[in-house]
Design goal:
The structure is a single chain. The chain is of the alpha+beta class. The chain folds into three domains: 45 residues, no CATH class; 175 residues, no CATH class; 79 residues, no CATH class. Helices cover 53% and strands 19% of the residues. Strands 1-2-3 form a three-stranded antiparallel sheet. A three-stranded antiparallel sheet has the order 4-7-6. The N terminus is likely disordered.
């Protein structure tokens, strides 16, 4: 005997219509049962005889289909919930970054930074070779303009400055023509550490103070599962971490919370900017966009697992010229990478729960 009744699907709250089979004492969605009946009918037609399986086996199959559908709906519900949490996190980060950029401290910092020259790669290399600890360099008179004075006896850092030249030469067609070109000459600059005077406006990017031993261990396991070698040790020049394409270096002189945030950042670089797949399918990203994407992924992952990194992440992104508009332009890349990293961290716990 068969009858229909309605009930509510617990994972989704959706009202469904079920067929009750009194001979088996079980029920399944009417649509699924109907589909199985059609399969049985096709087998009858194809074979020219009655169905090759008994009713009990048919209902077992229906039940399996029903349970599998429930698992899929539950899984998709969790995915939607995670995506909603990721979107909320990125909205919060976008607001925090815009707040930093709107602050008077940040504006004063940018005003001062605009007065510093952007040196070429070759001159940057010369500066690093002569004074590895240099952070802000400028010429003698530029420091005076900024209210600071180079200490007496300070040794200048040699770089090469371009200089224009031009001259007039005779020309049979137009009489006189002007030729011009560029030559380079050695000049000297000084690091802020070689000067005295009032402090310049700055924007502090604080380390993450909270401990996060478990998250750090989980992220290291994720790196291992992806074939990425992680090396811990002191790094020079104020570097927190390095992504090398298949390998990551992490400065272990800092707390575990900072190390976890840095490792998430570098793993995001590996996924978004260093993997063969990303290099083959995506155009090369500018350094500022790459740093924005990696830091945003690290922020989302850390926030998901209860590690507060908002102050550092928002200021870091702002210093790389990021804003809410740039974050939204990379939203899908950030969200997908963060979701995958979160799933990879949680995978062992999920398998243990099932077992």
């Amino acid at each position: 005997m068969q009858a229909y009744h309605t009930c509510r699907n617990a994972p989704t709250g959706r009202i469904i219509r079920k067929r009750f089979d009194s001979s088996l004492g079980t029920c399944a969605p009417a649509a699924v049962a109907g589909a199985i009946s059609k399969v049985a009918a096709r087998r009858v037609t194809a074979r020219g005889r009655g169905p090759s399986f008994k009713g009990a086996r048919t209902m077992e199959t229906v039940t399996q289909v029903w349970e599998r559908g429930n698992r899929q709906e539950t899984g998709s519900g969790k995915a939607r919930e995670l995506r909603a949490r990721i979107d909320d996190s990125l909205d919060a980060l976008a607001r925090a970054v815009d707040d930093v950029r709107a602050s008077d401290t940040f504006k004063a910092y940018l005003d001062v930074q605009a007065k510093f020259h952007r040196y070429s790669w070759h001159n940057s290399l010369l500066i690093a070779m002569q004074r590895p600890e240099a952070s802000q360099v400028a010429g003698y008179r530029k420091w005076q303009e900024l209210g600071r004075q180079v200490r007496k006896g300070g040794k200048g850092i040699t770089i090469f400055a371009p200089c224009l030249w031009k001259r007039e030469v005779a020309d049979d067609t137009i009489g006189v023509k002007v030729e011009q070109g560029i030559f380079f000459k050695a000049v000297y600059v000084f690091d802020i550490g070689q000067t005295d005077g009032p402090e310049l406006p700055s924007l502090d990017v604080p380390d993450v103070d909270a401990a996060a031993d478990a998250l750090l261990a989980d992220l290291r396991r994720v790196a291992d599962s992806r074939g990425i070698r992680v090396a811990f040790g002191p790094l020079s020049g104020g570097v927190y971490g390095l992504s090398k394409g298949g390998a990551v270096d992490i400065d272990d002189t800092r707390g575990t919370g900072q190390q976890a945030k840095t490792l998430a950042h570098e793993l995001a670089h590996e996924a978004l900017h260093k993997s063969k797949e990303s290099l083959a399918t995506m155009p090369e990203r500018s350094r500022s966009i790459a740093e924005l994407e990696a830091e945003a992924v690290a922020y989302v992952v850390c926030r998901h697992f209860g590690l507060d990194v908002e102050v550092r992440a928002s200021r870091y992104i702002a210093l790389w010229d990021g804003d809410s508009k740039a974050l939204r332009a990379s939203l899908e890349r950030i969200a997908d990478t963060a979701r995958t990293m979160i799933d990879d961290v949680e995978a062992p716990a999920a398998r243990k729960a099932v077992a």
